[in-house]
């Protein structure tokens, strides 16, 4: 059966939701998800004066405290705790007059889904994860949705074991095994994003991966946090390979997912059957996707250095949600690493400058750092 992928936008076709009963939010993250600081580091270096300040603190931390600034091991956690993240996604769908199905996919953990299953309003949430799976010379992010409840933890242990000792052939075996479970949905998230900056190797290994996995990959993701140019290239790739396209908002901050799937499925298992067996998918982009990509990605990233006094104590300050190795290599929140218990004044001044990035004009340097990503308007022809 040939795949049928339809793409609509809320700003051009708000009536596209009318024939459907359900909205599906795929690929979003909670406070449990560990996010690398490397991307924030790259963004920061694109802003005036930040590079010199970073180099100053690298030297100071090494000489005074014996700590080497490590942007690879350091991580930040998204601000929304699991129930808050679920509610943000569900409320956006409900405003469209649709029943919400939400699949939370934190990086390499299903803890959020386990917690949400103890809450009546989210008890039906699927066991899902975004698995960072090494393959060849790159790493692919796989959205594994709706694992059987009885086997979810065992699968998570297998994912962890594979990531620690990867083997291409074993990955293919695992994906075929997952494919044999008809309720499971396997999505290749943001397939063209060279997240680990391996260059041409990523595209070469991507094509080999798609060829060797065959039917085990059920859909390629149009990512709500990636720019329109990349999503168009993903749509072309899906045409070439015969794959279905599917939504994936990739929300990390306060903004709900920028795209959804429209369906009339009554539950997540029915939705999976629609994708896998009927091979039809309707991706609907929300209004926020019209905003400039540079501004949206900066706004999302700024959550890493924003205080939220309305949140649970211990999770309100930005430095309580950012983690870095101490002098002994142990991961600790920054709030425990400051010599006097609070961030240095010069660092806070720099952070206030970076926070100005919420101003549209101030985000202009990001256009220089990421040229060409907004050359095409997001409402041009997709497929």
Describe what this molecule looks like in 3D.
This protein has 2 domains: 4-33 and 78-290, Metal-dependent hydrolases (TIM Barrel, Alpha-Beta Barrel), CATH 3.20.20.140; 38-73 and 295-369, no CATH class. It has 12 helices and 14 strands. It has helices at residues 38-45, 50-65, 82-95, 111-116, 152-164, 168-179, 200-213, 228-241, 268-278, 293-301, 345-355, 364-369; strands at 4-9, 22-26, 35-36, 75-76, 99-103, 127-135, 138-147, 185-188, 219-223, 244-248, 259-263, 280-285, 322-325, 331-333. It is 35% helix and 19% strand. By secondary structure, it is α/β, with parallel strands linked by helices. The protein starts with a strand and ends in a 14-residue tail after the last helix. It has a 5-stranded mixed sheet with strand order 1-12-11-2-5. A 5-stranded mixed sheet has the order 6-7-8-9-10. A 4-stranded antiparallel sheet has the order 3-4-13-14, covered by helices on one side. α7 links the parallel β8 and β9 (219-223).
Could you give a short description of this structure?
The chain has 383 residues and is an alpha/beta fold. The protein is built from 12 helices and 14 strands.
What features would you highlight for this structure?
five-stranded mixed β-sheet, 19% strand, 383 residues, 35% helix, 12 helices, 2 domains, TIM Barrel, 14 strands, alpha/beta
């Amino acid at each position: 059966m040939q795949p049928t992928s339809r793409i609509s936008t809320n700003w051009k076709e708000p009536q596209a939701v009318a024939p459907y009963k359900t909205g599906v939010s795929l690929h979003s993250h909670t406070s449990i998800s560990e996010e690398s600081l490397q991307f924030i580091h790259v963004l920061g270096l694109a802003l005036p004066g930040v590079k010199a300040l970073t180099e100053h603190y690298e030297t100071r931390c090494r000489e005074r405290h014996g700590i080497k600034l490590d942007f690879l091991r350091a991580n930040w956690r998204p601000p929304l705790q699991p129930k808050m993240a679920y509610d943000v996604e569900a409320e956006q769908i409900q405003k469209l007059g649709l029943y919400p199905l939400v699949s939370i996919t934190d990086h390499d953990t299903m803890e959020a889904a386990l917690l949400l299953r103890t809450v009546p309003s989210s008890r039906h949430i699927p066991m899902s994860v975004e698995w960072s799976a090494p393959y060849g010379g790159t790493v692919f992010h796989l959205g594994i949705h709706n694992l059987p409840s009885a086997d979810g933890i065992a699968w998570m242990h297998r994912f962890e074991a594979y990531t620690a000792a990867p083997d291409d052939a074993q990955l293919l075996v695992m994906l075929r095994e997952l494919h044999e479970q008809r309720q499971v949905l396997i999505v290749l998230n943001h397939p063209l994003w060279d997240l680990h900056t391996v260059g041409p190797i990523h595209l070469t290994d991507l094509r080999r991966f798609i060829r060797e996995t065959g039917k085990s990959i059920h859909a390629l993701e149009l990512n709500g946090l990636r720019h329109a140019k990349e999503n168009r290239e993903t749509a072309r790739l899906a045409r070439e390979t015969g794959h279905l396209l599917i939504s994936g908002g990739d929300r990390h901050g306060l903004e709900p997912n920028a795209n959804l799937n429209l369906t009339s499925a009554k539950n997540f298992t029915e939705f999976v059957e629609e994708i896998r067996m009927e091979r039809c998918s309707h991706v609907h982009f929300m209004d926020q996707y019209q905003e400039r990509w540079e501004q949206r990605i900066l706004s999302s990233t700024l959550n890493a250095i924003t205080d939220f006094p309305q949140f649970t104590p211990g999770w309100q300050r930005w430095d309580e949600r950012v983690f870095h190795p101490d002098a002994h290599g142990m991961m600790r929140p920054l709030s425990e690493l400051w010599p006097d218990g609070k961030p240095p004044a010069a660092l806070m001044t720099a952070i206030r400058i970076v926070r100005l990035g919420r101003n549209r004009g101030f985000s202009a340097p990001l256009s220089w750092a990421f040229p060409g990503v907004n050359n095409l308007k997001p409402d041009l022809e997709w497929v």
